Amino acid sequence: MYKIDDVFISYNTVDDLFVPEVKPGIGWVTFVYKHLVPCLRSKLGTKDVEVFFDVEKLRGNTELNPELCRRVKAARTFVAIMSEGFIQSSWCLKETAWFYESLPQKKAKSSPNWSPVFKLDRQEIDREREVPQELLELHGLTAYKFYIKPDGVTAKELRHDHKEEAREELRAKIDDVAQDLAKFLKAVREQVNEQLKPYPPPLVAPGTGVYLAEAMLDRDRDRSYLRRELEQWGCTVFPDQPLPSDPSQIKATINEYLRSSSLSIHPLGAWYNAFESMQVELAQAHKRDRTNFSYLIWLPPQLAIQDEQQRKFIQLLENVSEPLKIALEEFKEIVSEQLISQQPKPDRQQNEQSESSDLTHVYLIYDQRDRQVAEALEDALWEALEERGVEVIIPVFEGDVTTIREHHQASLLQSQAAIIYCSDASLDWLRVKQSDLRGASGRHISKKFIYIGGSETPQKRRYRTAEAQVIHNFGSFSHECFETEVIRPMVEG
Predict the structure, then answer these.
(1) How far, in Å, CA of 406 to CA of 401, rounded?
(2) What does the pLDDT read at residue 357?
(3) Is 185 left (phi over 0), alpha (psi -120 to 50) or beta?
(4) Over 80: is that where the pLDDT of 100 sits?
(5) Which of 7-11, 340-344, 371-375, 455-459 has the highest mean pLDDT?
(6) How far apart are the C-alpha atoms of 111 and 183, rounded to whole Å?
(7) What domains sit in the chain, N to C, each tagged with a CATH number?
(8) Please, which of 20, 125, 215, 390 could form a disulfide with 385 given CB 3.0 to 4.6 Å?
């Protein structure tokens, strides 16, 4: 049976010329490939990901390679590294044409209702420039911009041979691409009944629309991050396709998106842009006309505004609203709280009756220092809950910080009950985990317990909170205490 690639990467070799100062043999496209693959595997939750990256093995010097043609046409997605070199490459034109030829068959079988073509602009490409016939459809797609405009005018490519800050920005862009590729591939695999790691339960009701305003390039990375978070929460994020190029149609299109949204988000940067201003004005008009709509304006706290017109625009906004000048992570929490507050409130009586029957996942949270004793708690939970079909989730400690954090956040989203166990871990660690639980309130976790063990100290003895039931079990672990104080209340309500 022929191999089917999940991703086919098409590029011109001039974009992959290696830079000796970085590492011999590692070019720009190779750098993207080497970071894209592990990112994609992590987001799909499986190593079973096939990414075709031709290093001149199939292209060679031949006019046409049947195997290359077959691989392109069979691939589930097509990633084009767009550049002047790509536009002028006969191989890139062929690969693009082959993939588009196969699209009708893909759509008739198992593809989702959005494009499997992902365009990565390594350089700024003029949307109005003429391109070969084979690239007309590709050229019209919205691109992932792998360049920045620090001064708002001049485009600078994100290079892997520059300092670490530039490489981090490049990795963040690669993560954006991996996020959308994973979303597409999950939909494809679900339609052909392939086994995948399930999504965590969404934060919002299906169909919750959010308008994420287009922004200047200095906020593009932050905007991409917000889009990823919103999509992971289950939101439908607008615009979901390129805005019309005809200025007379833009306002009507944005208004349609705003009507489909309960919230609009406006990231602002250091430079004034009339289009950003127009989007804010349209959101303000919707806020005046609709009680079920709100908008949030965000600026980084240490933003150095160089543009006098932008400074005046922000001052004007401060007179009629309150732009949030806070860290991006803090802003994300405010966005999640706003979305939760807009969700329909469940019937209280029905909610109370269904709390016990809805228990499917329990998250046992502990620090690596408490791992040995925590295993006894885990065993007790499995013993009591396995017959009820309840899954016990525990932390992971292997992998990088991002992987560990993503698992923690997904576990919070998936669970209806959570237990924080603290023995040798510090109370500062406990407060951080309690804060995570607080952020999860309003989602799915209705039963929260803090189980404090180990050696008794005055600080541990006095630890209390109204946000969770606190149980003290100093000295040796007591199975009876854990069952009486945690398991029974959790199961019986």
Answers:
(1) 9
(2) 46
(3) alpha
(4) yes
(5) 7-11
(6) 12
(7) 7-199 (3.40.50.10140), 217-342 (3.40.50.10140), 349-492 (3.40.50.10140)
(8) 390
